[in-house]
Design a protein that fits this description.
Elements (H helix, E strand, L loop, with lengths): L2 E5 L3 H13 L3 E5 L2 H10 L4 E4 L8 H10 L7 E6 L4 H10 L3 E4 L8
Length: 111
């Protein structure tokens, strides 16, 4: 079973994302900030990461840059899911190594 790490400081967003992703047969791990997400990846690298931008301790973009700098690991697919919807944020995320970028709120019918 593929694993997905949901990284968001909102417990509600993590709960909704978990429900959607479990319906797609993903095993789920959660982190409420970028630092806890790095720690989770060091324990067990997921196949995918669903990532928020704005979080305490370490932001999503800081997490992504640190993740992509890790050597000798199978890198996960990283999808930003955030309310940040301007082109500067999108370009920064893609440049840092995001695979996809979707805006909240999203419709589970299109996922």
């Amino acid at each position: 079973m593929k694993t997905c790490l949901i990284v968001d400081d909102s417990k509600v967003v993590r709960m909704v994302a978990r429900k959607i992703l479990e319906g797609l047969n993903f095993a789920i791990d959660e982190a409420e900030d970028g630092q806890k997400a790095i720690e989770a990846c060091l324990r067990s690298m997921p196949a995918a990461v669903l990532l928020d931008w704005n979080m305490p301790v370490k932001s999503g973009i800081e997490f992504l840059r640190e993740l992509r700098a890790m050597a000798d690991v199978d890198q996960p697919v990283v999808v930003f899911c955030t309310t940040e919807n301007d082109m500067n944020h999108i370009q920064e995320a893609i440049d840092a190594g995001a695979d996809e970028y979707i805006m909240k709120p999203f419709d589970s019918e299109i996922i």
